[in-house]
UniProtKB/TrEMBL annotation:
<dbReference type="Pfam" id="PF01547">
    <property type="entry name" value="SBP_bac_1"/>
</dbReference>
<dbReference type="InterPro" id="IPR006059">
    <property type="entry name" value="SBP"/>
</dbReference>
<keyword id="KW-0732">Signal</keyword>
<feature type="signal peptide">
    <location>
        <begin position="1"/>
        <end position="24"/>
    </location>
</feature>
<dbReference type="InterPro" id="IPR050490">
    <property type="entry name" value="Bact_solute-bd_prot1"/>
</dbReference>
<protein>
    <submittedName>
        <fullName>Sugar ABC transporter substrate-binding protein</fullName>
    </submittedName>
</protein>
């Protein structure tokens, strides 16, 4: 998916909201208009224009919801501050977005607001000096107690959480109910469920390996479950350069089971096609997260699906839900329009409007002011969390995750053996350690 740009101008806002939105106040950091007196003078005079550049990697499927909300913000900013905002929103694909963003930031072509993965990317972007401290903004005090630490570093809130995740794999409840099946709690039970599905001519697993980030999900699920049960020191030992993926070689058990019992044409199916196939009942399970719920329900709004933890071995204590924050919005530390950027990020968690936004995106509540009822699959995942059957998404170097996706693609196509994958990931982690120590 190539990066696409779309400016929300006055006309766009009129078309979408039926109201007049002008265009915005002075560029610059906002320091010259941050006080109430400056804002009063601004409101009394002619409106100024600000173009806000927003980089939303991998979120093209939510373009309509975001662009509508940005238009609402532009209307609010015009009414309250006489600042006319045109928003240049860009939606590059998930595969290329991280590298595009890093290049932009390094070369000075800086978006005012950009999306990053809270767990994976906040430490690196913060260390590089790209993130603004949002701790003094009203949004910071609204964050739920369990969410706030995940978007904070050095006791500073540096991002607004969008997708808070409780995930494992998706399963088709109708198929399970029709066959009298329940989500398995152990690997042996998963093998039994898989066989029962096959006996009834149902494909157990949907395979969608066209995009490397999808098989890469196995890393978070297997490392997370094992580090929080039988291999508690794995991540620490890898960070010290003393461990090896050979220590958790059992991670391949579930990967092999999925690969051997999946749908055809795995390398022809990416995320969008995968959502359509799952929505159409082509398989009973998909190792994927609820972030695809919107895409799935656009295809089949009657689909009854659930979220369950992925079994890794015969220890039920290792079968847990992964809890994380992925997509979050950060403000560039050297952005040109900080006042307006802050206003937009605060509006993302507006006490009233954000309820509709998050619900339309089918995201979980993240604010203390969110009052909307979570979707059934969210409540199901939360039921495991409430029982203590969850863990925080493990901290794995981004380079390891990226390489993991490629390696598991090669493993599926039999171009790499288990031993090859282990050696590759061990080397990538060691290289990541070296790179981190040089910074």
């Amino acid at each position: 998916m190539q990066a696409m740009k779309k400016a929300l101008t006055t006309a766009a806002a009129i078309l979408m909201l039926g109201s007049t939105v002008a265009c915005s106040s002075g560029g610059g950091s906002g320091d010259n208009a941050s006080g109430s007196g400056a804002q009063g003078n601004q409101a009394a005079g002619a409106p100024k224009k600000v173009e806000l550049k927003i980089f939303l990697g991998g979120l093209d499927r939510f373009r309509d919801q975001f662009d509508k909300y940005f238009a609402q913000f532009a209307e609010k900013e015009k009414k309250e501050k006489n600042i006319e905002v045109s928003i240049n929103s860009e939606y590059p694909g998930a595969e290329n977005a991280p590298q595009i963003l890093k290049t932009r930031l390094a070369t000075g072509d800086v978006p005012d607001i950009f999306s990053i993965h809270a767990v994976n990317e906040i430490p690196d972007y913060y260390k590089a000096g790209y993130l603004s401290d949002l701790s003094s903004q009203p949004l910071a005090s609204k964050l739920s107690d369990g969410i706030k630490p995940i978007v904070s570093i050095d006791n500073k809130v540096v991002a607004v959480p969008m997708e808070s995740l409780e995930w494992g794999y998706l399963y088709n409840k109708k198929i399970f109910n029709d066959l009298g099946l329940k989500p398995p709690t152990t690997f042996s039970e998963m093998k039994t469920v898989t066989q029962k599905l096959k006996d009834n001519n149902v494909k157990p697993f949907l395979l969608s390996y066209k995009e490397g980030w999808i098989p890469q999900l196995f890393l978070s699920l297997t490392i997370g479950g094992l580090v929080n049960s039988s291999h508690k020191d794995f991540v620490d030992s890898m960070n010290k350069g003393q461990g090896s993926f050979a220590d958790i070689k059992e991670m391949f058990d579930i990967i092999d089971l999925v690969n051997a019992n999946g749908t055809d044409r795995a390398f022809e199916i990416g995320n969008d096609d995968g959502a359509a196939e799952f929505a159409s009942g082509k398989a009973a399970m998909w190792v994927q997260g609820p972030w695809d719920s919107d895409s799935i329900l656009k295809i089949n709004d009657k689909l009854d699906f659930g979220v369950a933890p992925l079994p890794l071995n015969d220890d039920p204590n290792a079968t847990m839900i992964n809890v994380s924050v992925s997509t979050s919005l950060a403000m560039a530390s050297n952005g040109k329009n900080k006042e307006v950027s802050q206003d937009l990020l605060n509006y993302i968690l507006d006490d009233q409007a954000s309820n509709e936004l998050y619900q339309s995106l089918k995201f979980n509540p993240v604010s203390k002011t969110h009052t909307f009822k979570p979707y059934p699959w969210v409540e199901e995942a939360s039921s495991y969390v409430n029982k203590g059957k969850s863990y925080k998404d493990p901290s794995i170097p981004s380079a390891v995750k990226d390489e993991g996706g490629k390696a598991l693609q090669a493993y599926f196509s039999k171009k790499m053996s288990k031993e090859d994958v282990i050696k590759d990931l061990d080397k990538t982690w060691k290289d990541a350690n070296t790179a981190a120590n040089k910074k």
